[in-house]
Every structure is written in structure tokens, then in C-alpha cells.
Design goal:
Aspartate Aminotransferase, domain 2; 2 domains; seven-stranded mixed sheet; three-stranded antiparallel sheet; globular; binds pyridoxal-5'-phosphate
Length: 398
């Protein structure tokens, strides 16, 4: 792919790679703009990024302090696959939370789930491979796939199927041109849809039968408000599971996550990790192991999200937002804003400028239909969400 190689500038006459020319992650762009406004004195409410407002809970914070005070000499590289004690702790989590026996050897500690996507795509797919991605979906999937010289095959989710990918839709896309992998998130970002266990199993079975690798992004596990939460690992050992300490565990900036992979893939992923990242940050691995002891505090934080969700589901329709998508899990509302605008980018920019409420335009998540939607994160404090609703209501009335 050399077609769009272009010179950086006359002053620096080197060529840019075509694959580096991916779209921006708009939520992060909005976050930068919101931070600049805040620094300039505007009162900003952050509903743009999926980031818990709650601080790191106490046991984990104390583990960080202890590690820095007493174990600083141990904060070097770890084994590429991660500290054995953390891998064992995650295996215990699967037993306790899901009743599943997962061998710690199948668990890989990653630099956030973001690194998990790169490792999965590189382990499973060659350049040029087609990867099925339901839309709307997390924007970085599409952009990482492009940066790796693979091809995103977006499949439009529909209201009729409650914004869940059906086996039929997957196989139809596969019949157009073969797919190498499918990446599904449940709960989904931005729709909040949770796939029920039977639907998830049927999709995984269809993918496996067709030779399509099933990658399950379970980053919003622990944050299901309606319906059942089940890891795909309950149905199959062949899937690749990606998870993270960023969301339920409130550790976004620590850049730490994990994968559960089939035994046959471990050595390949280990070699990729050794060379691409060496290992996940050592301090973050220590803190992640401790954060499991903070479950009571994390459950309280989750209860706050549930209250935020209830408030938004009740108040947003009253101020004119339409067709709010399921919001069964995660901490997002994805809502139709066509009563106000047919250009969600413009709508979000105006709302930020005039009210200080930062939200993300739907075009981040869905190139085709996202101009009609915006995403609001309710991972913030309850006072923030209440104030945001009030400001939005006043603005949209006017
Ligand atoms: C669905 C989904 N997957 C993955 C990520 C990336 O998370 P991290 O790299 O912090 O684990 C996010 C972040 O918002 C997300 O929404």
C-alpha cells in the first residue's frame, strides 16, 4: 500500500506511511479540547471519556505506596507474560466470579487491553486479513486494524436485533469475502448492549465453524446493570478474551490489562510481547493484584454508576434526546440527537463551547450513522452527572 505516501513537508521531506494515516480517536480529541478550556477557566464537566472519576481504592493505593517504599528494587522488567502471582490471582478471579477453571498459564498480562488487541491481531491475522467489527463499536478497533495493514469489515448492528451481532449477519459478511477474525465487546461501547449467554454462544459457534477467530472484549465485565454477565470462556476455550483493569477496577492510567488465550497461542503471544512491549509495567502489576481486595469499594462505585444511569435514562428523554440504546452494561448512554442536529460533531462542539459539558460525537463509533448520535459517559461523580443534565436541559430549551 504505497498509494497515499506523501511528503511530510517541504522542510522535512520524508514520506509518511499510508497505514499511519488512521483517524483520530475523537473522544481523546474532545478530552484534550475540554482540558484546554478548563485550563483557560471554563467550568467543564467530563462526560466524553470512559474513565471512572473514582480514585484508586485504598488497598491498591497502599500496595503502590508499599511497593515504592520497600520494593523499588523489584520494579524492573517482569516475565513477558506477567508476574506469576498476578496471573494466578486472575485465574482465581475466574473461579470466584464465573465458576471457571482457567490455567494461569493461559493468562497474559498486557499494557491495557489496547495492547491486547495488537497482540491478538498480530498472533491471529496476517497483513490484508479482514476483521469483522460490529458498528457502532469502540473506534480504536478499526484504527488499530488499519494501522496493522489489516482490513476492518464493519457490520452494521440493528435496532431489530437489539444492537447485537447475529450469526447470520457474520456469515453473510464472511460470504462476501472471507474473514479471519471477529472482535465483539459485551457489554458494548457505546451502546451498552450485553449479549445474553445463548446469543454469545451461538455467535462463537458460528465463527468457530467458519474458521473465524473469536476475540471477546470483556473490558466492561463487572459493570452489567441489566441481564446476565457471562464470559465467552464458559462456552469455549478457543476464543481469545481481552480484559483490563481500566474500567471496573478504576485503573485507566496504570495501563494494565490481561488476555486469556488458548494454550496453543501462548508461545506466539509471548514472543510478540517480548519484542513489542517486553512486559506490562511492574508497579501496575503489583497494584492490579491488590485491587481485587477492594471489591466492596468497587461495588459501591458501581452502585453510583447505576444511579447515574437511572438519572440519565429518566431525564434525557425529557430534554429531547431520542432512542437511547440499551445501556444494559458499561457506563455509556448512546442517544439520537436528530431533534437538535444531524451533525453530531458540530452538536458536541457547540454543547462543549456553550455549556462546558464534554460529550463524544457518534461518528467516533459509527462512520455511517454516527452523525445522528452522541455518547455520554456516566462514569463521573453523581453531582457531575446531575449538573450536566441541568446544563444540557437549559441549553436545549434555549
Ligand atoms: C470497549 C473498549 N475496549 C478497550 C478499551 C481500552 O482500554 P484500556 O486500554 O485502558 O484497557 C476501551 C476504552 O475505553 C473500551 O471502551
Amino acid at each position: 500500500m504505497t498509494a497515499s505516501r506523501s511528503l511530510l513537508s517541504p522542510q522535512l521531506p520524508v514520506a509518511l506511511s499510508a497505514r499511519g494515516q488512521i483517524d483520530a480517536f475523537l473522544a481523546m480529541d474532545v478530552m484534550r479540547e475540554a482540558a484546554a478550556r478548563e485550563a483557560a477557566g471554563q467550568s467543564v464537566l467530563h462526560l466524553e471519556v470512559g474513565q471512572p472519576a473514582a480514585p484508586l481504592p485504598e488497598t491498591a493505593r497502599k500496595a503502590a505506596e508499599r511497593a515504592l517504599a520497600k520494593e523499588a528494587d523489584k520494579l524492573g522488567y517482569t516475565e513477558a507474560l506477567g508476574r506469576p502471582s498476578l496471573r494466578a490471582r486472575i485465574a482465581r478471579h475466574y473461579k470466584e466470579r464465573h465458576g471457571l477453571d482457567i490455567a494461569p498459564e493461559r493468562i497474559v498480562i498486557t499494557t491495557g487491553s489496547s495492547a491486547g488487541f495488537i497482540l491478538s491481531f498480530l498472533a491471529l491475522c496476517d497483513a490484508g486479513a479482514r476483521i469483522a467489527l460490529p458498528a457502532p463499536g469502540y473506534p480504536a478497533y478499526r484504527n488499530i486494524v488499519r494501522a496493522l495493514d489489516m482490513v476492518p469489515a464493519e457490520i452494521a448492528l440493528k435496532a431489530e436485533s437489539r444492537w447485537v451481532l447475529s450469526p447470520e449477519a457474520l456469515l453473510e459478511e464472511h460470504s462476501v469475502k472471507p474473514l479471519s477474525a471477529l472482535l465483539v465487546a459485551s457489554p458494548n461501547n457505546p451502546t451498552g448492549t450485553v449479549m445474553q449467554p445463548e446469543a454469545q454462544k451461538a455467535l462463537a459457534r458460528a465463527a468457530e465453524d467458519a474458521g473465524i477467530a473469536y476475540i471477546s472484549d470483556e473490558i466492561y465485565h463487572g459493570l452489567v446493570h441489566e441481564g446476565a454477565e457471562e464470559s465467552i470462556l464458559a462456552a469455549t476455550d478457543k476464543a481469545v478474551v481481552i480484559n483490563s483493569f481500566s474500567k471496573y477496577f478504576c485503573m485507566t492510567g496504570w495501563r494494565i490489562g490481561w488476555m486469556v488465550i488458548p494454550p496453543e497461542l501462548v508461545r506466539t503471544v509471548e514472543r510478540l510481547q517480548q519484542n513489542l512491549f517486553i512486559c506490562a509495567p511492574a508497579l501496575s502489576q503489583i497494584v492490579a493484584e491488590a485491587v481485587f481486595e477492594d471489591t466492596p469499594a468497587l461495588e459501591e462505585i458501581k452502585a453510583g454508576y447505576a444511579r447515574n444511569r437511572a438519572r440519565l435514562l429518566e431525564s434525557l428523554p425529557k430534554i429531547g434526546f431520542r432512542d437511547i440504546l440499551p445501556a444494559d452494561g458499561a457506563f455509556y448512554i448512546y442517544a439520537d440527537v436528530t431533534p437538535f442536529s444531524n451533525d453530531s460533531r458540530d452538536f458536541a462542539a457547540t454543547v462543549l463551547q456553550e455549556t462546558g459539558v464534554a460529550i463524544t460525537p457518534g461518528v467516533d463509533f459509527d462512520l455511517e450513522r454516527g452523525h445522528r448520535y452522541v455518547r455520554l459517559s456516566f462514569a463521573g461523580a453523581e453531582t457531575t452527572i446531575a449538573e450536566a443534565v441541568s446544563r444540557l436541559g437549559d441549553h436545549l430549551k434555549g
